[in-house]
Amino acid sequence: MAIASTCKNGKKYLQLSAQGSGKPSFPQLGEHDQLIMRRQHSGESMSKTLVYFLSGIVLLVVAVVYWPIVHANFVWDDWQSFRDYPWLTQGDQWKHAIFRGFNFWTYYFRPLVVAFFALQVHQFGSTPGPMHVVSLAIHVVNTALVGTLAWQLTTDTPLPFKGRTWVVPLCMALYGLHPALIEPVAWIGCQFDLILTMLMLIGLISNISIRQQVIRAVSLTIFFFLAACAKESAISFPLLVLVCDWILIKQAGKQPTASALRVLIYRNGLAYAGMFLSGCAYVIFRHWALGSIAGGLKFDSISLFSRLQEACFVYLHYWKIILWPTADLSPIHPVSIAIFDTWSLVSFAMAGAALGIPAFGVYAGIKHASPLGLIILAVTVALLPVVHIIPGHFELSLYHERYATMAIAVMCAMLPLLYRPLRLPSYHAKSAVLLGSMTAASLWLALSIVTIRLTLPLWSNDVTLWRWALAKNPEASQAKSSLLLAYIKYRDFDAATKLADAELSDPTPCFSCMVGIAQFATANDDISRATLALQRMRSSAFLAKEKGQLQVYYLLSGRLLMQENKLDAAERTVRMGIAVDPANQKAKELLEEILARKGQPGSPQ
């Protein structure tokens, strides 16, 4: 082996380049020095073996803790994604669904994961168990990738080699057992988030480990494009690469910011250009598939200051999810954006904190290479796509645990950067600090394991899921209507009727609940409940705002009139529904049924 000595941060590092048999020899050194070097090499080999062993244990624990989820059923929109609709199950429809129309999406474009869903559906036959195993396997892989990234980021830090042996598995455990990740692991539809995280982590690892500039640039270009085709949140990937590059440059030694920027461009300028071209290619690909870049995205018409307050509110809640997730776990987090129309002392304080945290990260991380600042900066960058900076209406909830998956990954991988040698007056004081840290980490992990095992059963089927959601959010219309549909799906008609009556007696019932009740009642020839639900729908202001819901009202009213044998009125009502959206095939089928009853078979046009 050849030995090259370099100096970094005042310390000598030996770079060994393998030649021949791979056994270390140390020419031009004294016998005593050679013995020391061999012992050091042997110690590092043993430490590497230990870190592999401990990491394997962590991965096994993560798999065992999450294993009950493989017995769970489909939940939420898994049913329409993988079983109830023919997108992926019948013939070659999946070839079209990969690019457009899957799950009634108009603005999401995620061909890579939709294609992976199609593969699973064709392989497993729309059976949830194997698909849950796939989700768990991806999560275990991501846990290993977090450990790999943590190991690489701490190569040139004050953390001793033996310390890395223990700290890296700890980082893996903190990520793999983080309670906020229950949602993406337990919900098959969240493989978007898991695969996005996997591709971005592999990209960050490649950025550090690949020394050849061209190969590194090509790798980052490819991984960025694949990540973008997995989920739109990949837009944060180039900025995360930039943060990692800054860490590497600052680890090489103190230098002025301007000089560091020049080194940054020199080291990875080709990769930055490649990722820019990759982003352009993705935009063209997306436009080809959807017909536009934004698709059917609806934009909220709120003021700039309300948008700022909303973004600050969401940003702070994501920090809460990352640091203390057990306090507010729920499948939904409905928050009315009307609360952001006015400012109060609390909202000013939240805005100050939300703006101050990333400002500190930028200043401390860029100016002073502070590990804490760099971690805050990386987490903030990972959260940028989901803090509502873009004025689009994506979800009924303002935030979700699954959206923090990548932010949690980069934070856990970067935690070893915080290590600093303890300079305490006595050995006992140092031991007390270490014991306290180990105890705190152990308690956090124990609480996380308990939380995971208690929460996983709530994700086992739609009934338990939406009962939980309704218990956490008693006024949430999404929870009420989804629970009603879950009762109907599992044929618990007594529970469905009880919930329907409770909603019908509510002076301010939710519109979606009335739709579900009307559908349930007409399907069971329950004329009185169907009539009452339709009356509530007709008096709702929501009906005038949503064209799609207006058609639903006409079609349900037409079906009820048909059941009452008022065929002329039923025909007129359904024709009004068809006029709202002539492309609706189910509306035409209902009209054909009415005409057949009237003895007028033929075209419903």
From TrEMBL:
TM ranges: 49-69, 104-121, 133-153, 165-182, 194-210, 222-249, 270-289, 343-365, 372-390, 402-419, 431-452
UniProt keyword Membrane present: yes
Gene3D superfamilies named among the record's database cross-references: Tetratricopeptide repeat domain
Record bears the keyword Membrane: yes
InterPro entries linked: O-mannosyl-transferase_TMTC, TPR-like_helical_dom_sf
Keywords: Membrane, Repeat, TPR repeat, Transmembrane, Transmembrane helix
PANTHER family: PROTEIN O-MANNOSYL-TRANSFERASE TMTC4, PTHR44227
Protein name: Tetratricopeptide repeat protein
Source organism: Dyella monticola
